[in-house]
Amino acid sequence: MNSDSDLQIAGDILEVPHLLQAPREHPATVAEFVGLAHSVAADRAQWEHLVEYDATTRWYHRLRTGPGYEVWLLSWVPGQGSGLHDHGRSSGVLTVLDGTLTERTEQGTSALGAGAQRVFAPGYVHEVVNDTFEPAISLHVYFPGLTEMPMHTACARRTGAEPVDAVTA
After folding, report:
1. Of 34, 77, 91, 123, which one is least surrounded by beta carbons within 10 A?
2. What's the CA gap between 71 and 39, in Å, rounded?
């Protein structure tokens, strides 16, 4: 019977630098984009002073870009919403920074409070609305960067029909 452990045979993997992956400068996986959203959200000094509230339209500001991605900051006053839409060929991470946003999909309605995240793939159809009496702030990471935001009707969402209108973000 052999009593050698795997560690004795192979050595400590942390001691073998060529087996470790070098840290990436920019995120490349869904988990890394979620991590990017977490780190930006946690660093309030980076974004809090930029936030503005506009009663006539949703306010937004691009915080950062990298190879194949964008990070956006949005504010929502009570009653503002996105309309029913998808994000074209982009996947994304939505993180609520302050307040509460309501997300509506064909699966149902969810209240997303501060700290909540939603990760979505291309073709994910939803509507985001501030249904509260307090303003809200959200962070959006899109990969690849957002180039279109096709709008949908409620009927198109239920039947799976094609979007009826498209706007470029």
Report:
1. 123
2. 12
